[in-house]
Amino acid sequence: MLLYMSNGSAGTKSTPLHSVSVAGAVMREDGRLLAIRRADNGTWELPGGVLELSESPEAGVRREVLEETGIHVEVGELSGVYKNTARGIVALVFRCKPSAGTERTSDESTAVAWLTPEEVAERMSEVYSVRLLDALDEAGPHVRSHDGKHLTPAEPQVLFDDLAGGDLSK
């Protein structure tokens, strides 16, 4: 069983190749979506961050959203998995509902706003806006890759029967 991915060989010390982040696609009943303007680079994104080793993905989402926005959330289903191929980051995005709290900025955010889907598409780069817009589509979870700036084409899906050389016409 594969326990982790690394760049080492058996018996040698290695560095993990991927980190895991989590984010909340927080949606109000009026259809607006929670977004932050990051303090470090000024870009608009959904609240989230690196998952700590000792926490579940759902606990990480609750912690990150609260830290960055002041909003407590109920974490729902996974809406997407997004891989930054340039940086080796895999982001898990969960649909969330706000449950309490008041919007506020933090050391990590200079603005907190409830945006319409149109405003999300206008303010965010495609690799972040797609995460919120995918959360509106309940057909997920979606799986996407990007190079840090642009989405990369999806690979064709391979069925298990194809791998085994099975006849799919039966």
**What gyration radius follows from the Cα positions, in whole Å?**
18 Å
Sum up the overall morphology in one term. Answer: globular
User: How would you spell out the order of helices and strands?
Assistant: EEEEHEEEHHEH
Given helix and strand content, the structural type is alpha/beta
Biggest sheet: strands side by side, in what order? 4-1-6-5-8
Let me know the number of strands: 8
Low-confidence runs: 1-6
Strand content: 25-35%
Helix content: 10-25%
Distance between the termini: 32 Å
Number of helices: 4
Largest sheet: 5 strands, mixed
Give the integer mean of the pLDDT values: 87
Task: Name some characteristics of this structure.
170 residues, disordered N terminus, alpha/beta, 34% strand, 4 helices, three-stranded antiparallel β-sheet
Give the topology.
Elements lengths: L18 E8 L6 E6 L5 E2 L2 E3 L6 H13 L1 E14 L4 E13 L7 E7 L1 H7 L2 H11 L5 E5 L13 H5 L6
Parallel strand pairs: 1-6, 5-8
Antiparallel strand pairs: 1-4, 2-3, 2-7, 5-6
Describe this structure in words.
With 170 residues, this protein is α/β, with parallel strands linked by helices. The chain contains 4 helices and 8 strands, in the order ββββαβββααβα. It is 21% helix and 34% strand. Helix 2 (117-123) packs antiparallel against helix 3. Residues 1-6 have low confidence and may be disordered.
Short précis:
This protein has 170 residues and is α/β, with parallel strands linked by helices. Helices cover 21% and strands 34% of the residues. Helix 2 runs antiparallel to helix 3.
